[in-house]
């Protein structure tokens, strides 16, 4: 999961939030399966990505990527 997490963070640095989210979601799912406490770090990054995507009016894309990765977004 660390590879996906690191790649997601790298994509954030170049403002590629779509690819960042795909990778952070993969890390999140692996952390969740492992029952790792790092899951909360991935959640924090997903929240950051959401804020960036919302600013760019890409909330629907955020929701689509989350759904594709089997992650339920609660309001």
Question: Could you characterize what this model shows?
Answer:
This protein is mainly alpha-helical and 75 residues long. It is built from four helices and no strands. Helix 1 packs antiparallel against helix 2 (17-34), helix 2 (17-34) packs antiparallel against helix 3 and helix 2 packs parallel to helix 4 (59-68). The protein starts with a helix and ends in a 7-residue tail after the last helix.
- Relative strand content: under 5%
Radius of gyration, in angstroms, nearest whole number: 11 Å
**In sequence order, what are the helices and strands, one letter per element?**
HHHH
Helix content: over 70%
Shape: globular
Poorly predicted runs of 5 or more residues: none
Beta-strand segment tally: 0
Class per helix and strand makeup: mainly alpha
How far the N terminus sits from the C terminus, by CA atoms, comes to 26 Å
Largest sheet: none
Question: Given the structure, what is the number of helices?
Answer: 4
Average residue-wise pLDDT: 95
What's the topology here?
Elements: H1 2-13, H2 17-34, H3 39-55, H4 59-68
Key features?
4 helices, single chain, 75 residues, mainly alpha, 76% helix
In short:
The chain has 75 residues and is an all-alpha fold.
